[in-house]
Amino acid sequence: MKAYLLLGVIACAITFLVTPIVRRISLALHVLTPVRERDVHQVPTPRLGGVAMLCGLLGAFLISRQMPYFSQFYADPQVWALIFGSIAITVLGVVDDVYDLNWWTKLSGQVLIAAAVAWQGIQVVSFPIFGMTIPSTKMSILITVLIIVFSTNAVNFVDGLDGLAAGITLIGAGAFFIYSYLLIRLTNAQSYASFAAMIGIVIVGVCLGFLASNFHPATIFMGDSGSMLLGLTISCMFIVVTGQIDPVSLGTSQFLPAAIPLLLPLAVMALPFADMIMAVIRRLANGQSPFKPDRLHLHHRLLKMGHSHRRAVLVMYLWAFYFSVLAVCLLKLDWIPELMLAMLGGIICLIVTISYLPGLRSYYSQGADPYPRHVRGKDGR
After folding, report:
1. Best exposed site among 34, 64, 176, 298 by fewest CB in 10 Å?
2. In angstroms, what is the C-alpha Rg of the chain?
3. What share of the chain has pLDDT > 90, as a percent?
């Protein structure tokens, strides 16, 4: 555990130190996020934060290669596939941040990068339930590409408030790190080193280091370079562990442990996935492109209900933490305790979400402005 914590601190420190440098470069190059109708920030803000996050990620990987505890992983092509994919997706994001690519060009780039990552070794080879094995390499690559592209865009969709995407990803990666570490402890008595756990703790460190500059009021945004980087790395972390360990060997009930590798990614990324699915359905139903921006995301709805910017983010953190805890507890709890925990936690989250709404009464009874003063830009929108 000490080696993991050290690696997380290294990733955090590098990201924290590099972020102000990237901010100055972004200001010098005038790579700023303007105040648009759908946005909630009030002044143009630098948006190349993904470059700093990549530096933290690569710096941690470079140092981990010199650590005997982690050096064994670098004989596996999966590590190099992740490094290549991280660099490539960040470059694509930087180009999008600078030149504002259209949606199909960006999506095509995501598909190509995901396919390259899958081709180099990070693939879903089997599903743990009922011993299902993917019958062909082509099918495995296709499923892997779909997972990576879906996760990449899910994180991008939720990146709408200061610190929101970084915080939710931090919570999800932290939960998956705990799950991976506990799993390797239960199934491998000789070594507790796990590539999936290493990815998880590095993501936690990167997000924590970036949040120092990105939490409200943010001095820099991660941009598409950062959101796509987080989406790709966290999806690769899911893929690395899914199907490679037999959870039934944990000695609990049959179906529940076997389903954990499939349920865990859905749980820890429940908010981004749900937000993306609802946005796509909503836009398609209105005859719009699924990538057309709007102000109807979950975080926008919290603002509309009367939450302040910071409180809306903290409420989203709470729900992300709730789903993540439920997912990790699947490793130890049976159905009945898990159901009781889900009910109790859900009630607490609902109380917190609903009880602290300063504008709720006026919003429903007096027809108050659906976007409070703290949400508007300079033009009043």
Report:
1. 34
2. 21
3. 37
